[in-house]
Each structure stands twice: as C-alpha cells, then as structure tokens.
Amino acid sequence: MPGTLYLCATPIGNLEDMTFRVIRTLKEVDLIAAEDTRNSIKLLNHFEIQTPMTSYHEFNKYEKGRKLVEKLLEGQNIALITDAGTPGISDPGEELVQMCYEEEIAVTSLPGAAACVTALTMSGLSTRRFAFEAFLPTDKKEREAVLGEMEHETRTIVMYEAPHRLVRTLKLLEERLGQERKITVCRELTKRYETALRSTIGEALAYYEANDPKGECVLVIAGRSREEMRLEEQARWEEMSLGEHMEHYLSQGISRKDAMKMVAKDRGVPKREIYNQLEKD
Q: CB 3.0-4.6 Å disulfide test: which of 123, 148, 163, 164 passes with 213?
C-alpha cells in the first residue's frame, strides 16, 4: 500500500509558529524532503527531530520528484518542507503533488504559516476577495501581461518581493495602477522588526527610495474600484454623439427599442431621456 505525502508548513520567521501536528508528523514519517537541508537542519535540531532528510528544490523537482514517488509507492511516508511557509506557495511542491495524484498516492496538507495570508489579514485592506500574484515574472513580456491584468483587478492583490527589487516593483505598480492606489507593504513578518507600512503606492515608493528596505516583503494592494471603472466606461461612451452611440448597436442588428435601452444603460441615464433627446434631434 502506498505511503502518504505530507505537506508541512514551517515558520516564516518565528519558531513559535510551528504546530504540534507538524512536529509530530516530522518525527513519525520515514523521510523529510527539504528545499534546503542546510537551512532545515536548524529547524529539525531545534525541535529534536532526527528523521532523515533529502533535498527537493526548484532545480531537481522533476528528477527527485520521481524518486520520491517511487519511495511513496513502496509504502514510505514522506513530509515535504520548504525554507519557510507552506509548500507549493511560491515554493517547491506543486509538481510533486501532481505526480502523486497521477499515481493515486494520498496527499494531505498540514496548515500553518503562510506569508500571503498573514500579510493580507494585517493589511487593513479588504480580505473578502483577493488574488495572489506571488512574484512578478522575470520575463518582460509575461510581466507586462500580468501587470495589464492587475490594472483591471477588483480583488485585493497580494504579491511577494525581495527587498533589493522592492523600489523597482513599486515604480512599475505606480506606472500601471497609479500613485494613489492604497497599498500595505509588510516586511519581516512574525519577526522582531516586523513592519506594515500602510500608504499609497506613491508614498510607499518615496519612502523606500529614501529608506533602504530590508527583509522579505509582501505587498497587499487594494483592488480597483468598480464604481471608478463604471464611471470611466460611462465617460468613454459619452465621448460619442448620441447618434453614433445608437448606430453602434443598430449596426449589429439590434432593434431601435433595445438599442435605446443599451445606450441609456451605458450612459447611466433613464431610457426616456435618450428617447426625448433622439426625438429632439
């Protein structure tokens, strides 16, 4: 009978965030696959965990993943940990999970620290709906595509960024989302010098241009206002004459009555007002 793959969340800074369940599981499994064994040995030693470790990281995730699947098929139980946080969230893990499901191997996730959720909940921005963007792509064309999508995103956006790229990323966000968009920049989460700077993108950029950022960063950005988008769309329609606006729909085979309804909706006015204006013209 195949073993089970356990995705174990580890602290993102504060060792007190390690759960009892993860500690017990790491002690009980046959093998721990770690993103960086040199980093993880410190964690295991702190909690007196003596389970054997093997490396599983971005550069060997396919080759080593197949070897781990073989061990799981033999009946071994394996825990996957990363340097910090939950495996699979901007860290190795996603591909191994897919391999396991292809072989009908059980996978379970042991919840714990996740920088994206930690930052979101302390950001002061809306938590009802959010989009996780992780790190911006390094490829310029792909990065531009992602930024283009973010321009119209109405959900709160959560992003990761390294301190040495923070100013560059804030400049890109200012160009595409505007300097007045609300943002909370969280740094050193759960650590002694944890900070959460609540401001606008323009203010955050000015601050970090003057103050060298240190520590990994999570950016929580307010989504675009739907009302603002509606007013912008309405303004675009109003640039047309009423006749041009009507012709836009009539040329598509839409009846005059329905076209008037659609024009009225586009312009945010009663249908009677459109009717009266057309009659006057």
A: 163
- β-bridge partners, 212: none
The answer to whether 3 and 77 have CB atoms below 8 angstroms apart is yes
5: β partners? 78, 107
CA proximity to 12, closest of 220, 167, 217: 217
At 83-124, the pLDDT tens digits run 999 999 999 999 999 999 999 999 999 999 999 999 999 999
Which of 20-24, 43-47, 101-105, 245-249 has the weakest average pLDDT? Answer: 245-249
Amino acid code (one letter) for 33: A
Answer yes or no: are the C-beta atoms of 219 and 158 closer than 8 Å.
yes
SS3 content of the chain, % helix, strand, coil (to 5): 45, 20, 35
Quote the tokens at residue 152. Answer: 């119209």
Please say whether the beta carbons of 108 and 21 come within 8 A: no
Read off the pTM. Answer: 0.82
Task: Report residue 16 as tokens.
Answer: 């007190």
Residues 6+ apart with CB under 8 A from 86: 7, 9, 109, 111, 112, 113, 114
How many C-beta atoms lie closer than 10 Å to residue 222's C-beta?
Answer: 22
Contacts by residues 162-170 (CB-CB < 8 Å, ≥ 24 positions apart): 162/135, 162/216, 162/217, 163/187, 163/212, 163/213, 163/214, 163/215, 163/216, 163/217, 166/208, 166/213, 166/217, 167/205, 167/208, 167/209, 167/213, 169/136, 169/219, 170/201, 170/204, 170/205, 170/208
Cβ contacts of residue 225 below 8 Å, gap of 6+?
154
Residue whose token pair is 């993880």: 40
Do 145 and 152 meet the contact criterion of CB atoms below 8 Å apart?
A: no
Q: What is the C-alpha separation between 132 and 152, in angstroms, rounded?
A: 15
